[in-house]
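Section 4.2 – Deliverable D4.2 (structural model, holo form)

The reporting period included a commitment to supply a predicted holo structure for the target in complex with zinc ion. Inputs used:
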Amino acid sequence: MLSSSQSQQVITCRAAVAWGKGEELVIEEVEVSPPQSQEIRIKVVSTSLCRSDISALDSQPIFPRIFGHEASGIVESVGSEVTEFKKGDHVLTLFTGECRTCSHCTSGKSNICQVLGLERKGLMHSDQGTRFSVKGKPIYHYCAVSSFSEFTVVHSGCAVKVNASAPLEKICLLSCGAAAGMGAVWNVANVLEGSKVVIFGLGTVGLSVAQAAKLRGASHIIGVDINSAKCDKAKAFGVTQFINPNECSEPVQQVIKRITDGGADYAFECIGDTGMVTTALQSCCDGWGLTVTLGVPKVKPEVSAHYALLLTGRTLKGCLFGGWKPKSDLPSLVDMYMKKEIQIDEFITHNLQFEDINEALNLMREGKCLRCVIHMPK
Ligand SMILES: [Zn+2]
Ligand SMILES: [Zn+2]
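Output (structure tokens):
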């Protein structure tokens, strides 16, 4: 137990540091600064690997850096002006924060906080500094979370207190992918009972979409993926028909139009392939067909589509984190999990110790996992 004065000291702990593009992570001794004003320092308990960590590792130029943005932990200490957290609180980290006072946070229309939204420079929101260093050399953050470390510092608006009886090694999934998929169905598309849904990409996000669509009573939940090995798991999450486009003799949008008698009511792009956004729009029905994008493209960020698709009434809608206002909404999602109203355990295909974090990256690169939960040392 640290006394309050000791807790405001630098902590030396282990973190998985990315030193260069696409390189293996290296477990290093890092110094973690005390939390500054409005910040909290968290002892990370569990962190799951999300595809975006790998995409950023492979494409962005900011190094050295500590990745990880889907995590749970326990508050170790709090900085000045922090009133809503205390040492010992159980929290989920938020890669997109919520300040609760900016015009977006108070609009009732948006979860894109103007103050604590997605951080892209690898720095803290408050002072554009870092809280990690190795031998005096600063280490950049990722999405203002950096959970591949035994301890991390986040803005108090980038964490949310949750039910302390919820298993941290499971609910870490709700801090990104699993929650994003469900939110896209409930908050962004607002899928109605009896509707026809098509999902492109059946990873954790796509399967979350399937689960949420099933809970809304969708009549058709068509899952599209080029890996037929995903078919059984997809059906367990609510997919009613599985299509592997590589096994079709005609374009997949035509197959979908036939099955749905004119096109789906809702299409969800969960791959991060802008070409597939076009296919998703083409798979929707005239009049009210809605395509929601969830995937983050690694290459070719521009979307192109024939204007006639829009002229005939289709909508293309983007979202971040499934439209959830993270601080306001996540506690109730955790409670739904505790009441067994939503399933997330089934996304966890691997449990690994922190030392084996590179194995998690390999499993995801090879498409052999849904979620790998990385357990930090106790
Ligand atoms: Zn993520
Ligand atoms: Zn805000």
